[in-house]
Design brief:
- This protein is mostly helical.
- It contains 18 helices and 5 strands.
- It is globular, with a radius of gyration of 24 Å.
Amino acid sequence: MNRLITTFKNIFAIDELRSRILNTLLFITAFRLGSAIVLPGVDPNKLNLNPQGLLGLLDTFLGGAFSKASIFALGIMPYISASIAIQLLTLALPYFQKMQKEGESGRKRLNQITRILTIVVTAVQALTYVRTTIPKEALLIDQGLFTISSLFILTAGTIFCMWLGERITDKGIGNGISMIIMIGIVSRLPGALIGEQQSRGTGGILIFVLELVALYFVVMGAVVLTQAVRRIPIQYAKQVIGNKVVGGQRQYLPLKLNAAGVMPIIFAQALMFIPTYVAGLFSEKSDFAAGIQNAFQSYTTWQYNVLFALLIIVFTFFYTAISVNPVQIADDMKRSGGFIPGVKPGFQTSEYIGTVLDRITLPGAIMLAIVAILPAIANIFGMTSGFAQFFGGTSLLIMVGVVLDTLQQIESYLLMRRYEGLMKSGRLQGRTTTGETVAA
């Protein structure tokens, strides 16, 4: 306890770190206040939105702003969609690849294109949200006027959330976009805990405590999945530059067990509505189609979870393949004079890295699939749906990843000022050490 108090004193003793933490809290407060402001012209008492599936996941990311018809109802998600689209274009089109290699100027142009695409995506999503989600009986003004005004307000709300994320990155403790998503998720945790405790009643205190213990071990497992790496040794040849001999050092290439992050779960979640939709077209004429529709309407059925897990495994391999390029890694190593002991530089090095990557991706994909279906398992065991969401899936991985990144940033400031770090042994590592972000 004394060490914890000392650590907090050291944190706030650093002027820059204290300022960044206070700025982050200020920006987060602004985001949460905006999430509670309902769109003008909507009667909140007549809203009865209960989004499911992908929309339910979106509502979780936004801390309930989607179901409340808030001015931040779309939040930062259009920006993330635009960022993913630009990233995929960078991998597929030479024009964007060239722009990415132009250094700082190229990154600025890509950021500008991402912002413009964000406005377009937000406008389309805002129109769809207003037309299909908000019921007419909840409107206090003319529907046409409400549609036009909400289109501008929702777009401005997303731009403001994007600006808040950039401010947290520049003036706060970093990872602004990820931080906003995490705050939206964490904001629902107190209500989920209260709801779960009330559902158990006074006689279920022991069961509730056991559930918290189980949640603790699930979080620890998510930390292991996020942090686990396979280190490949790299030896650098000695070079004579002038009168000095440089090189000859041994370093390591860290390949993450889960290089795809949360993206496979998001991609798989986006496709899980297809079986229900297709089966619904033939459900009146075919009993088989009706059975499929019933099986995939609930996320707790075994059919839903088996297909969900298989899609996650497939998307994990796919996203890892497009995000980690063994050929480029081997070329960079060759240019810098590095080699893997016992492996020839060039083609054989890329083949070796690709083989290791395939071997570690399979267990990582299986672990990711297990984490993704844990909320369904928790719900089957009688937990409330709100509390069960924190037992796995995208929500848990985002929270763990952002917390690790934030603690790593704070530890870097402490060690830079010659204070003791957050951990007694070893360095605390976040996802930022391997270049992964939630938005990527």
